[in-house]
Amino acid sequence: MFATAFSFLYQFGDAFAFLVIASMGLAIIFGMMGVINLAHGEFITCGAYVTATLAQKGLPLPLAILGGAACAGIIGMILEITIIRRLYHRPLDSIVATWGISMIATQGVLIVLGSTMQGVGTPLGSFSVGGYSYSTYRLVLMAIAVLLLLGLYLLFYHTRFGVIARATIQLPRMARATGVDTSRIYTLTFGLGAALAGLAGGLYAPTMTLVPTMGSTFIVESFVTVVIGGGDIFMGAAPAAAILAVIRAGMTAWQGQLFGQIGLLLTVIVVIRLMPGGLSGWLLRGRK
């Protein structure tokens, strides 16, 4: 009985961590900024590839992961300055542009680095409960997901940058009138979202086969989480990740991973039909 309960809780924590870590960057770029970023998976791939490269050159894994996140963030800021900046409030154009960036990045990695890359191996080993073996590293990922939510909350609600960023995104003309350099804030915010995507790739690089299309593993769950959650990271994406984790863990335990994926897609259909503004829209309306 204990082994079964622990197995479900472990699967729930693993799914929750994956959804939170994979979707936080998209929650900022898509949920907050309104940019439909189809290149989100490629930022994740960038983080994973840079992490693996740095780790193979002898850099400790935590520093390699941070290096992958930093590289993705820098590329994100460059893309925001050169391309994305002209596409705010133009959702169809942003879809086409970011899709083009995605195709260029995927094919470029395939041509330059080949169809696969040597991984770094999953650290920390495993432990057993009731005859079943579990990865210790995935427990670390669960803790990182919680710390990531806490860190973003403190950043956006308890720092000057966070207040200015939220004001700029919600009322850019008013922020500009008060002397805020809105272009710089947009660049930094987009770069933060890209860095978080790179961090997701770096964190999961030890658990996956590194291929140019690995970002597609993340992007469906990321969009599902953000769409269900709505525009608010903490009142939307985090509760959505918890709900989807329960559904995914339950369906997976019942009928396998395929049914877990089907459960996620059915959930997003139902939520969009009943709550077009997502969970955060429904919660905020309830407050009013």
From TrEMBL:
Question: Which of UniProt's keywords are assigned here?
Answer: Amino-acid transport, Cell membrane, Membrane, Transmembrane, Transmembrane helix, Transport
* Signal peptide region: none
**What's the chief localization of this chain?**
membrane
Location in the cell reads:
Cell membrane
Query: How does the protein associate with the membrane?
Result: Multi-pass membrane protein
Which Pfam families does the protein's record reference?
A: BPD_transp_2
Q: Which residues cross the membrane?
A: 12-39, 59-84, 96-117, 137-156, 185-204, 224-247, 259-284
What's this protein's family per the entry?
Belongs to the binding-protein-dependent transport system permease family. LivHM subfamily.
The cross-references to PANTHER family, in alphabetical order and at most eight, read: ABC TRANSPORTER PERMEASE PROTEIN (PTHR11795:SF447), BRANCHED-CHAIN AMINO ACID TRANSPORT SYSTEM PERMEASE PROTEIN LIVH (PTHR11795)
Please state what the protein is called: Branched-chain amino acid ABC transporter permease
Organism, scientific name: Tabrizicola soli
